[in-house]
Amino acid sequence: MASTATEHPSLNQFSIEGLRGVGHVELDFHSGQRVYTLFGANGIGKTKCLEAIYQILLLTNSTFNADDLNREIEPSALLFDELTVRSTSIGLSRKTLGLYLKKGIGLHGSPAVLVAAHGRSNISNDFSRSSFLGDFSTRRHKYFEGQSQLIYSNELRRSGMRSDILEWFVTRAQSVNPFQKNSDNRRVEIDTVLQMLHQLDERIAANVLQIDGGGRVFIQVEGQMCGLTELSSGFTSLVKLVQAIVSGYAAFTNEVQLRHVRGVVLIDEIESHLHAQWQAQIIPKLKELLPNTTFFIATHSPLVLAQLQEGEAYLLKRDAEGVVRSEMIEAPNRRAFADVLESAFGVDLNALKRQALLADDQSAAKLALLAMLQQPHSFGEGA
């Protein structure tokens, strides 16, 4: 296998030709940032950009391509004709895909995890009771095989949103015993998920997990044991988002300090099912919890936008030539909320207020006129 050209590449400039359903895309982000958040109208290509970036990062990753896996990913499964990460050696097209997969060539070593939005608020009661978790090589192979299948079947909208999250917790809990080989004792994954959840919301206990004889999984919320399948959509969304990141990183490395892995996490519709307080805090918190991670995020939430710093927010717009380009939204966290709404979403709060006041005035005038017309008249009296 060829050695990696760069272990952790700079990911701030992307040129995408033939992005499915979108066309030509040019993304230019401020260098040196750890968060790049995409905004824009429906259909402009936010989700497709995330999926395309994920495809190139996964399919050119040295760990992924070193895995002994017969990947039957056809060139047509790529979401783009060609994607280049400018200022790096990373590029991929339908013509070069087979080279990387068949010869095991990797261009970088950064783990990449895609957290999709589809199904984030749902946890199924059904799971297959797997007897063994497997060693690191087996776990990694299973994860990569699953991601390859999502690419092959054009189902990346389900990435990270595994329906068997109960099995994930159960099999890792079963590996926690005094006879287990240290490298295959995966308590670290459970602990990392619980600790991150606690720091995102202190109502979730940082060290309490219970599993009953039927495979039901419980965490402690506000002092009460709650089954994962009984959580609100907001808590479920938070649990699945964190679990997807941790399980993804754990597939690339057996590192104990999973929060400190240097990698890339892509999250679609990060605000999905989160209430206002979580939306306002989620990105700053994730930056704190995962200090070596670079995030690519898509969202429609003005509350998410309002917390972003200079160089972290970008509006996707199509120019006169039909190219979708990124335009930086200046320092959202230092501007008035009304100004942020107008620049990113085209919503003029002041104009809306004026229209509402005008409508109220017009309604009052109509009521006064109606009352006057309903009064008895004495035309001609006294004439």
Order of helices and strands: EEEHHEEHEHHHEEEHEHEHEEHH
Structural class by SSE content = alpha/beta
Shape descriptor reads globular
Strand content: 15-25%
Provide mean pLDDT, rounded: 87
Please report the number of helical segments.
Answer: 11
Unreliable stretches: 378-383
- Which sequence of strands runs across the widest sheet? 5-4-1-2-13-12-3-11-10-6
- Total beta-strand segments: 13
What's the main sheet like? 10 strands, mixed
Please give the oligomerization state of what you see. Answer: single chain
Helix content: 25-40%
The total number of structural domains is 2
Structure write-up:
The chain has two domains: 1-111 and 262-268 and 290-357, no CATH class; 125-261, no CATH class. Helices cover 37% and strands 18% of the residues. The protein has eleven helices and 13 strands. The longest helix is centred in the last third of the chain and has 26 residues, at 349-374. Residues 378-383 have low confidence and may be disordered.
Secondary-structure map:
Blueprint: E1 13-19, E2 23-28, E3 35-39, H1 46-59, H2 62-66, E4 82-85, E5 91-93, H3 97-103, E6 112-115, H4 136-152, H5 165-174, H6 187-200, E7 204-211, E8 217-221, E9 224-227, H7 233-252, E10 263-268, H8 276-289, E11 293-298, H9 302-306, E12 313-318, E13 324-328, H10 337-345, H11 349-374
Parallel strand pairs: 2-13, 3-11, 3-12, 6-10, 10-11
Antiparallel strand pairs: 1-2, 1-4, 4-5, 7-8, 8-9, 12-13
